[in-house]
Amino acid sequence: MGASMTKRMKMIGLVVLGLNLMACSKGTQPRSAADTPAPATSPAPATPTPAADIPAVATTPTGGKTVKTEMRNVLFHLTDQAAARIETLTGELLATGKNDMPVFDDKTSFEVRVISGKISITPEALASVLNSYVFARSDAPLKDLSVSINNNRLIIKGKMHSKGDIPFQTEGTVSAAPDGRLRVHTEKVKALHVPVKGMMGVLGIELADVVNTSKIDGLDTDKNDLLMDLGKLLPPPHIRGKVTGVSVENNTIVTVFGDGGASLTAPKEKGNYMSFEGGPVRFGKLLMESSDLTVLDLDPADPLDWNQGRYKDQLVAGYSKITRNFGLRAYVKDFAKLPRSSAAAATTAPPALKN
What we know:
Helix content: 10-25%
Shape: elongated
Distance between the termini: 55 Å
Number of helices: 6
């Protein structure tokens, strides 16, 4: 009896771990040892909490001059097949590691520090990221994941690969923690179609007792909740910032940073765009020591579909202009609209992400 109960507790731990990774919409390949999880905090209220200082980053661009960025209505690819929608974003590009400036050809050379903004993702895109990135390795504990939303709850289904592909299903809620991470609270768990969540309460066992997150950067436990650091769980270029609110609405998971864009002034450009100003950036053979670069959508009728790893193809399919102040305005073609030979690995962005 004791051995059977211990085995089931381990099963519960794997299931709940899967739910919490999925809720953050974000995943990674093997993480570097340089990142360490932030300390756990007490549960956050359902409403957004007051903004706190954004954690410091490891490096700053040459001369301490940052690259300011603003984005509006952008489908930002996390992988070729899955994108998150950036409704609004203001922040900075910061060089990482030994890099002295952001290099667009190297997604690991910089990160985006978000000051304010709103980013959403569909459950279909989330499942794609989880299957192709987070749990892509052959020895991953979870496989064949699907994500859906019902009554503002995340419904996760899949197989516990490390336990002989046992089917499971979880249901839970998401909220913002005071320190800017996402908090996921698991309400229901089924394994082999049998409810098992109540067993933990009966036995006085908390999630932290059965889930070991020490080897997963960006993931931590707090009693029966898990805390996720989005900046560590997303594929590069990493997006860091204080999450002040999160909700499930219109079949999407919506994450709010700072004031959610409420303080933004009038758009710098018409339509959908990403602008970069200030410090140095390099892209291709070009170097802008004092950047003045704006990427605009050739088709403003729908979001700017941007794939950082395939941006050269998007530039080639469009055209550029030089401003009187020697700034660069690049009009690019949406990634999903590139010729099949250029975007063979991509699929059209989920319909729910389009205007």
